[in-house]
Amino acid sequence: MATYYVDSAAGDDTRAGTSPATSWKSLTKVTAQVLVAGDTVLFNRGGVWNCWDTGTGRPGGVLTIGESGSSNATPITFGAYGAGVNPLISGLYTVPLTGWTRVGTSNVYTITDTVHFPTVMINVMLYNNVLTPLGRFPATGYVTYTGSTGTTGISFASGSLPTTYVGGEVVIRKANWALTRGTITAETATSITYTATGTNQLTATNGYGFFVQNHQSVLAKQGDWSYNPTTRTLSMYFTAGPTGTIAVSVTDSLVSFSAARSYNVFNNISFQGANAFAINGNTGSSNIRVNNCVFNDIGRHAVFFGAANTCTISNNTISDCANNAIYLTDADNNNVFSNTINNTGVVAGMGQSTDGTNGLGSYIGILISNASTASDNEVSNNTVLQTGYCGIYVLGDTFLVDSNYVDTACSVIDDGGCIYTVIGLGAARVNVRRMICNNILLNSIGAPAGTTGRNWGNGLMCDDNSSNLTILNNKIYNIAQYGIYFHNSHEINLLNNLVYNSAIAQIGIQQDSGPANLPRPLNFVICNNVLSNGSPTQLLFRFRCLASNSSANDFVNFGICDNNAYSSPFSNLNLFSTQVTGGAETFMDFPTWQNTTRKDANSTVALPISTSYGIILKSQNRPDFLS
C-alpha cells in the first residue's frame, strides 16, 4: 500500500510521487500508475488540473479508474493534501479573444478550433464566469404549434418564425413532462421537420409550444452562443467585438471508470465543467464512495453509475447541472445522503430530451431507477433546491426517502413533484416495502409555459401503478396542483402528514379514464393527517374515478380514511369533491363527504388558531422562512 502525491504546479511525472517533495504533475500519470488495494492518491489543495492540457510536462488528462480496492478497509482512495481550497479537476477551456471572424456586418463572431473544441455538442459555456445557455428564439417563452406529423414534424401559423433555422435545434414541449430536442432538417413558412435521437419518441401535443436554439440566426444579445460540432465552430454575439472571459466544456468525463470497479473512494475534490459527466462510473461498479466533493457547471450528470451496487454518495455540494445531479440506474443497496444540490436542469433545452431513449430521466436532482430492478436504496437528509423537474425521483423495491428538504421543483417541465415515484401501467410487478417519510416539500411551482396553461407541479406524486407505499410525517406546502397526488395508485398508507396551500387539492386520488384494467384505488389507509387550504378555491380532498368500470362504490371501497384534521380559514365549506365516469365533479361539504364515502367518522373540520402556513413554518423552526 502506497500514498502518491500530485501537484499541478510543482510536480514532475518523472519523479517517484511518494512524497510532496517528489510529487507527480498530471492526471495522465495517475491513470498510468497501476494502483493496488489500499493505495491513496492525494492532489495538492489549490491545484488545478485542466483535462485538455495534456502533453509532456503538462498537468492534464482524464482521470481513468482502472483498478479496484479489495474491501472497505483497503479501498483505492483519491483525496487531497495541503492547505487551501479543494484540488480542482476541470473540463473547461478558456477561449482566446483573438482569432474570431465577424459574420458580415452583424454582431455575430465565429471561432474554429479543431485542437481543443469537441466533436460533440458543447453543453457548458461560462461567459464572464456566469453559466450561459444557448441563444434561442424566442428569447423567452414558446411559439405555439398547431399540428404535428408523427414524431418528425410540427406545424404553426405563418409568420411565427422570422427566418429559417435549418441545421439548428428545435426544442418541443410535447407533453407536460416532455421536452424533445431535435435537429431541424427542413423548414417552410408554416412547418419544421426535425430528427431526434432515441426510440419511443412521443407525438407532439397540438397547442403546446416550441423554440429554436443553436443557430447563428437566433443570437441577439451579448453572450448568446451556438456551436457546430461538425466544423468545431463556436459563434457568439458581441455588441463591440469579442470581449470578456469565455470558457467552454471540452472534456466529456473528468473521472471515467474504464469498466466495472469496486472499492474506490473520492474525498474532498472539486469538479467543474464536464461536458457530460464529472464522475462517470460506467456499468456494474460497486462499493464506491463519493464524499465531501464539490461539483459545479456540469453538462449532464455530476455523478453517474449504471447498475450501481452498494455505493455511497454523501455530503457533496452539487450546483448547476444541466440534466441530473446524481443518477444511479438499476441501482441496489445505495445510500445517497446529506448532499446539497442546487440549480439542476433549470434551463429548458439544455438538458437531455425527456422522451425517446432517455425517458423521464432529465432535469432531476436525485434519480434512482429502474422500477423493476432497483431495490434497497436510501435517499436521506439531502437538500435539493431549484430543480427543473423532480427534486427526488426514486423507483424500485424497499426504498427509504427520509428527512429530505426539497424547495422549488417542476419549474421547466411538470406532471411530477418535489418527490416522485412510478411503476408504470404496463408493469406486471407490484413493488414492495417502500417508505417516504419526514420530508419537507415546498414550492412545486409547475411549468405552464409551452402548454395550454396546465400547471401540474405536485408536492409528492405517486404515479401509475404506485403501490405498497407508506407516506409518513411529511410536511408539504405551496404547491401548484396537489400536495399529495395518487394517480392510478393502490395499497397506500398515508399517515400523519401536514399539507397546506396546494392550488387544486391537498390530497388528490385519480383513476384515469380508459380501459377497465387500470389500477383501482384500493387498500388505502389515510389517517391522522392535517390538511388546510390557502385560498377558498382550494379543495382539501379530491377523488376522481374515471375508468370505464368506475362507479360511486369506488368512493366507499377505497380503504380506511379517518382521524384526519381538515381546516380552512375561509367561509366556503364545499372543500371536498368526487367525480365518477360520465358525471360532473360534485363539490360537497364535510357532512356530505362523510355520507358519500362513509369515511372520516372520527375526523374533524375546524378553523386553525392562526393561518396553517404559520403553523407549518413554526413547527420547523426555520428562521429563513419565519422572516
Note the topology.
Layout: E1 3-6, H1 27-32, E2 40-44, E3 48-50, E4 63-65, E5 76-81, E6 88-90, E7 92-95, E8 101-102, E9 108-112, E10 125-127, E11 130-131, E12 136-137, E13 143-144, E14 147-149, E15 153-155, E16 169-175, E17 178-188, E18 191-195, E19 209-213, E20 225-228, E21 233-237, E22 246-249, E23 253-257, E24 264-267, E25 270-272, E26 277-283, E27 289-291, E28 294-298, E29 301-306, E30 312-314, E31 317-321, E32 324-329, E33 335-337, E34 340-344, E35 364-368, E36 378-380, E37 383-387, E38 392-394, E39 400-402, E40 405-409, E41 416-421, E42 434-437, E43 440-444, E44 457-462, E45 469-472, E46 475-479, E47 482-487, E48 492-495, E49 498-502, E50 505-511, E51 524-527, E52 530-532, E53 539-545, H2 554-557, E54 559-562, E55 565-567, E56 576-580, E57 586-588, H3 590-597, E58 604-606, H4 612-620, H5 623-626
Parallel strand pairs: 1-2, 2-5, 3-6, 4-23, 5-24, 6-25, 23-26, 24-27, 25-28, 26-29, 27-30, 28-31, 29-32, 30-33, 31-34, 32-35, 33-36, 34-37, 35-38, 36-39, 37-40, 38-41, 39-42, 40-43, 41-44, 42-45, 43-46, 44-47, 45-48, 46-49, 47-50, 48-51, 49-52, 50-53, 51-54, 52-55, 53-56, 55-58
Antiparallel strand pairs: 7-22, 8-9, 9-21, 10-11, 10-22, 12-19, 13-19, 14-15, 15-18, 16-17, 16-19, 17-18, 20-21, 56-57
